Every structure is written in C-alpha cells, then in structure tokens.
C-alpha cells in the first residue's frame, strides 16, 4: 500500500534534476564567483592599462592605505562615507520609523500617504540626482527662487558649490529618494506586532513615547536589522547621487568625494586624467569588500541579538 | 492599578496628537510629490518661463519640449534599449531562478543545502565591487559594449533572490499534487510545467518586480560597459542628454519627465504589487 520513498531515484530523474540545477549554477559561477575571486587576485598584480603585468604582492594595498598620493584621498572619502552613513541612519531610517508609526494608525488619507512616500523610491537615482541638481542651481533652482520670494535672500546659497553645504545636500537628496523604503518596511514590521500587545500597553496607561520606545521599537527589531544592514552596504557603495550631482572629482575641492568615486576614478579614469589603474582599483575594491563583509556581518549579528521572538 | 479607573484607551490619544500626525503626513507627502510635480510642470515651459515664473502653472498645450525630445534626440533609442535589457534580464532571471528553485524545493537531494548556500553567497556579495574582472571577462567573451553585457550581469545579480523566492513558495505546495499526476503517468517535466508552475504565478510576479525596477533604473554597469550611444539605456542616455542641453532647462525637464513617466505611471497603477515586490527582500 505504501509507496517506498526511499528507493534510489532513477537515472532519468537524476538527469532531469541536473538539467534544472546545472545551468543556473554554471551561470552564477561564471558571472559572480569567478569575477569576485579574480577581483582578489587582480589586486596583487601590476597593471598596464588592460594588460596584467607582474605579481607585486601587497604593493597596491600599501599604496591605497598609506601611499602619499592615494591614501589622503581614500581616507578623506572614507570619512564622507561615514558621515553619510550616520546622517542617513538618523534622517532616512529614523524618519522612516516615525512616518511608519504615523501610518500604522491608519489615519485619514492613509492609502494616499503610503503611495506618495514610495513614489521617489521607484525613480532612477539618475533622475533624482539631476532633478535636485536643477532645483539646487544657485540662480534658477526652485530652492533659491523660493527663498528669494520669501525675502530670505541671505539664506540663498550655491548649495552644491559651497564646501560647507554640498555633502549635506547630497545626503538630503538621497534621503528624499529612499525614505519611503524604510517607512514601508517598518510599517510592515509594525503590522506584524500582535495588536493585543499595543492595546494592553495602552490600557496600562503607557504614553505615546514610552509605547514607541519600550514596545514598538524592540518589536520591530527584525526590520531594523535588515534596514541598518542594507543602509550600511549602500552608504559604502554610494556612487550615483554624488556622480550625477557633483561629478567624478567630488567637487568642490573633494568635500563630497566618496569611496565609490575614488574607485571609479582609479579603475576607469576620468575626463581630465584618463589613467586606468586596475591593480590599485582592485586593491581598493578588495579592501572595501572585506570592510563591508566584516562590518555588515558584525552589525547583523549584533542587531539579531536584540530581536525578540513573539 | 489605576488602569481601570482611567479613561478609555481611545480618548487616551489626545486630539492634538492626531492633528500633529496629519500635519506631518501631509507635509511629508507634499515634499515627496511636489518636486515631481514641478518637474512635469516645467517640462511644458520654455526656459525663459522656468526662470521667470518657476512656480506658475504652464500652458499645457505647449508640448514643444516633448516633441523635440522624442523627435530630435536619441531618447527613443535609449528607451527601446532599456526595454530590451530589462525584459530579457527579468525573463532569464525567472527561467533560471525557477529551475533552481524548483529542483531545490521539490526533489530531495544531499546537494540541496550546498546549492542554497551557493546562492545565498551570491545574495550577499556586491557584484559592483567585482566590476573590473567582470569588465575583463566580458571583453574576453566579446560582449563588452553590447546589451548582452548588461543582461548577463543583471541576471547574475537577480538570480539568487529569485531562487529563494521561488523555492520558498514551491516548497509550500502539497506533494499530493505531484503524486496524483505521477500516478496518472505524467513525466517530471510535464508535472513541473502543467501542474506546479501555473500555481506559482504570484511569487513570479514578486520576483519580476523586485528585479525589474532596479534593472530599469541602473546606471553603474552601463556607465562602465557601454560606449556606443545607440546601445545606451535610459539612465545612462539621460546623462548624455543632460550634457547636451545644459542651458535649455525646458528640454532638461521634458527629458526627465519622459524618463520618469513609464515607471511612475506603472507604479501608480500597480502600487500594491510594486511595494510588495520591492520590499520583498526586507519584509518576512
């Protein structure tokens, strides 16, 4: 009566399963595994343009981290990535959490606000970057035009040309672009909290702030884990917004330079100096890759520990 | 405690709080939408009108900028390239992702764990940082500066998440379905194609949207791989276009509007599916 499930699968069945799994695995091996493994290897060689030269050991790494020309640029850019990460943690993820909490109560216009906050997320970063570059134009951009028409002429600035505001402007443009993502991820997380828990806390006389801090924030920990990890990876891969809004050199005077721009300039050259250095580019990519993997894993493990099962 | 004697929970929430929440939400939605609205309105204006009256409503019959963008620039070519690249990549991701996902979910095998770990690694690794070897590999394969260079790259990036979405769903289907078909003498490929896959359309839609939006919007890989203007995708072509018309703001806004229109309209029509698809990786 019972069909034995233990019998060895027929050859025909094995061939069929192989037919299903082999093409995807070959594809991934060729276009993901092989490039990533080679990226490590390339960093140990000298490169003349696209041709690989001799094995040079750790020379490229030393140059990137301590060399007289490369290192100051790299560390300057790294600092800007860190600033962007911290600012976006607060504005983008923090703002998303608060917006999610307001949406969670399903107030009047809930559906509209939910759709509106996600509109910039679906747009290409290139569109967002150009749009804000035009809006921030010193003479004709709507930001300064609005300030002039409000009589706040002294507040008007060449936002992207001023060393003190350029990086902040890029960070705000990025936050405008992506705040909808953490908002809706947190909203989904809040909707998974059993409503009885929040109801019970309310009955106990918990005020809004305590409710958020002691009940909601700990219970959306899984969303926080994934959002903070994604932002961490995103902040250290930051490239498109700076590229479009301030150009490859991180102008003015490198005050908006980030590692993504340094990597691109090093590996593929820029308009002014079309020198390509694949060895140094690979060393920088490898270091960045190891940094992201190590810290993102630590961050994930640390954040996971605060997650509560319910 | 005094909980029983205090007011009902609903009145605990002061009216002023609800009002403040409304104000914040309306202000936020305004900040999210107004830039997009200004972009569209400016596309109907001449450059002079944009500089003189940036906030005024335009004459909507004045569509000269749009006609010029569509008629005199390479924008339509970029558009077709984006459709070809995104369409082919998503198709490949779905086909390969469903194959691997089906094998892992429906057939017991000692190699399953290994296969899943293999794809999990692919999910974590940012391929952007391996762009130099990818560049050299594509050059050696003769794919550089072709649409295929983008298609294989996007497929490689999107495949792991598709495997997990498909495997996760296919695992939940009852095995009675297969067994019944097997007793009827159906072959394994026939069971997969006619019995199981018709049920798997919802996760396929999620995997498709999750990948289609970032692929459609990507700029980094075209920037590195594509030189020829006739093969550029929309985001990359947009940088060329913006560079050509720097002083003609009417044209710039019309170009941005045309580039943003398809995905924005599609999003408004299918907002539920878009939100579900794009947050699929982060929402359990």
TrEMBL record, chain B:
Residues that span the membrane, as ranges: 17-44, 78-102, 114-136, 148-170, 191-213, 249-270
CDD domains tied to this protein: TM_PBP2
InterPro entries: MetI-like, MetI-like_sf
PROSITE patterns: ABC_TM1
Topology class, membrane: Multi-pass membrane protein
Compartments reported by the entry: Cell membrane
Residue span, ABC transmembrane type-1 domain: 79-270
Name of a matching Pfam family: BPD_transp_1
Keywords tagged on the record: Cell membrane, Membrane, Transmembrane, Transmembrane helix, Transport
Major location (coarse): membrane
Family: Belongs to the binding-protein-dependent transport system permease family.
Protein name: Carbohydrate ABC transporter permease
Species: Microvirga arabica
């Amino acid at each position: 009566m019972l069909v034995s499930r233990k019998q060895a699968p027929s050859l025909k069945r094995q061939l069929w399963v192989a037919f299903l799994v082999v093409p995807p695995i070959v594809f991934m091996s060729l276009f993901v595994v092989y490039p990533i493994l080679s990226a490590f290897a390339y960093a140990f060689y000298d490169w003349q343009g696209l041709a690989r030269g001799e094995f040079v050991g750790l020379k490229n790494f030393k140059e990137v981290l301590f060399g007289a020309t490369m290192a100051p640029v790299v560390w300057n850019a790294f600092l800007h990535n860190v600033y962007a990460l911290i600012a976006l943690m607060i504005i983008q993820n923090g703002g998303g959490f608060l917006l999610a909490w307001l949406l969670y109560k399903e107030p009047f216009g809930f559906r509209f606000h939910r759709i509106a906050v996600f509109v910039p997320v679906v747009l290409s970063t290139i569109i967002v970057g150009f749009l804000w570059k035009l809006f921030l134009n010193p003479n004709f951009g709507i930001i300064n035009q609005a300030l002039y028409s409000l009589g706040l002429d002294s507040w008007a600035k060449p936002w992207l040309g001023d060393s003190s505001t350029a990086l902040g402007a890029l960070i705000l443009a990025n936050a405008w672009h992506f705040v909808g993502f953490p908002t809706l991820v947190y909203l989904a997380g809040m909707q998974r909290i059993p409503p009885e828990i929040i109801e019970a806390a309310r009955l106990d006389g918990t005020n809004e702030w305590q409710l958020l801090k002691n009940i909601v924030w700990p219970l959306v920990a899984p969303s926080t884990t994934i959002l903070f990890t994604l932002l961490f990876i995103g902040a250290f891969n930051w490239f498109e917004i700076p590229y479009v809004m301030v150009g490859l050199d991180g102008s003015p005077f490198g005050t908006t330079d980030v590692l993504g721009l340094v990597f691109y300039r090093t590996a593929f050259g820029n308009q002014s100096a079309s020198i390509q250095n694949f060895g140094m580019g690979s060393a920088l990519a490898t270091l960045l890759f190891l940094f992201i993997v190590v810290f993102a894993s630590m961050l994930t493990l640390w954040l996971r520990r605060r997650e509560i099962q319910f | 405690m005094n909980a029983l004697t205090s007011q009902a929970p609903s009145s605990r929430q002061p009216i002023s709080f609800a009002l403040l929440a409304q104000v914040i939400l309306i202000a936020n939605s305004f900040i999210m939408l107004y830039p997009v609205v200004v972009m569209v309105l400016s596309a109907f204006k001449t450059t002079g009108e944009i500089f003189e009256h940036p906030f005024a409503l335009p004459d909507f019959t004045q569509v000269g900028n749009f006609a010029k963008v569509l008629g005199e620039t390479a924008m339509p070519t970029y558009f077709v390239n984006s459709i070809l690249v995104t369409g082919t990549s998503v198709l490949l991701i779905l086909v390969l992702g469903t194959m691997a996902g089906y094998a892992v979910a429906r057939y017991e095998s000692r190699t399953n764990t290994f296969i899943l770990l293999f794809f999990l690694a692919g999910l974590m690794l940012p391929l952007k940082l391996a762009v130099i070897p990818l560049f050299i590999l594509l050059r050696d394969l003769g794919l550089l500066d072709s649409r295929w260079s983008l298609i294989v790259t996007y497929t490689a990036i999107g495949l792991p998440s598709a495997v997990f979405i498909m495997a996760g769903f296919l695992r939940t289907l009852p095995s009675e379905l297969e067994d019944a078909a097997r007793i009827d003498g159906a072959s394994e490929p026939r069971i997969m194609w006619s019995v199981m896959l018709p049920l798997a359309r919802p996760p396929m839609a999620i995997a498709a949207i999750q990948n289609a939006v970032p692929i459609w919007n990507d700029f980094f890989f075209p920037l590195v791989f594509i030189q020829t203007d006739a093969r550029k995708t929309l985001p990359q072509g947009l940088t060329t276009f913006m560079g050509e018309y720097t002083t003609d703001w009417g044209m710039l806004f019309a170009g941005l509007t045309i580039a943003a229109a398809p995905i924005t309209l599609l999003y408004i029509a299918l907002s539920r599916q878009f939100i579900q698809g794009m947050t699929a990786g982060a929402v359990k």
